[in-house]
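Justification of resources, computational component.

The compute hours requested in this renewal are based largely on the per-chain cost of generating structure records like the one below. Each record pairs the submitted sequence with a full structure-token output. That output is archived, and it is also reused by downstream analysis tasks.
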Amino acid sequence: MLANFVQATYIVAGLLFILALAGLARFETSKRGNAFGILGMVLAVGATVVAVWAPESWRGADWASRMPSFVGVAGVGPLVFLVIAVLVGAVIGVWKALRVEMTGMPQLIAQLHSFVGLAAVLIGFTVFSEVRGEIEAGNAMEGVGFHLAEIWIGIFVGAVTFTGSIVAWGKLAERIASKPLTLPMRNLLNLAVVVAIVACGAGFQSSGNWFPLILLTLLSLLLGCHLVLAIGGADMPVVISMLNSYSGFAAAFSGFALGMNVLIITGALVGASGAILSYIMCRAMNRSFVSVILGGFGAETAAAASGGQGEIREVKADELAGWLTNARSVMVTPGYGMAVAQAQYPVAELTKRLTDAGVEVRFAIHPVAGRLPGHMNVLLAEAKVPYDIVFEMDEVNDEFDRTDVVLVIGANDTVNPSAMQPGTPISGMPVLHVWEAGKVIVFKRSMKPGYAGVENPLFFQDNTYMLFGDAKASVDAINAALPAAAEHRAIGA
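The structure output for this chain reads:
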């Protein structure tokens, strides 16, 4: 009876995770989807606590065959350790969530992926130690070869996720240079390591010994580290999505090793959705998924701006306020710089004031704007920018030639016309065609290239004007100058 209750709870939790994923697919239902996910996790943890705590008298004859291996022993001891682990994890999670800013969210996600990968490795070792003990005791185990395959594949994926996520965190936090590590014959080196890992896995599966498993783990850790080190900064949003997929599959294989259905369901959902998102993002960047893994953008990095490509034109906030007041249509293309400056709130205020004045304002969002998929969308939603004026690149890219003024706020690589030219580090990457507008205003602190390290010739075009300074302070200054600009327009009329 108790086994039925626990398994039924796991099924309900799995259904809630599916509903959570469906809810998170749309902005309007994202809060509800998040709530479903939280409820599902509470139920899954609660059912596990009940299973561990349950006394022997509550267990039926089918208990051993229906429950995961980690609940095979009842008693206060396992329950205490489980509760302590849950509480420690909850405290760390809440502490990190309360401290993190939106600009630090990609780094936090990379850290969380590393935890999942490490957990998969530790689970694999723990399960194998139990299996090894049964084998040495002479107890026959049905399907032991298949079980060992689940273990080593889970450890392989988990180890790659662990070190890959740590390197991704280092690059996003600027602890490691975003420039890709280009070792000679690096692709052949990766292939050789993968072949060695598979050979170790086959040896482990046939022998059931620790040595091939430990060697496999070390090689997997090395592979994960090198894979992400070889990827340039412009591809980091895809890397985050890719590691999200890896962490999901690592969790799924851990579920197979433990015999835990809810972990299998959750891991498969995360792994599949992460893989789909990575594919979509690669299509948006005109890159194959394989090319990103093997070291996509950034194999060549351009030199920092030196002023040799032409002269720049500057504009002041009060003058720009007049241009915006007299414009019929304005397009805003945000980037990571907007997130760093936390300029989304004054941008939302500017949007409302221009809209009230009869100016059409829209937002153009590149699929990889920022360092996290959907980064800009979340920031704008947080500032209560109407969602119906926020458009993806494909929806508005042909509208720039009919736009009077474009505000490029903290974006760089996603508006770089170098992508339209062959022979550049970002050649082939779809970008926002902001240069087709009447006037282009670029908000930047300096002439420094973007995260990919690629020079942007947009800054030197005849219709481009630079507004240097902190993005939030600059937009605040524009908002302050708008009443005077509107009054001047009314007098002129």
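The two ends are 81 Å apart (CA to CA). The chain has 17 helices and six strands.
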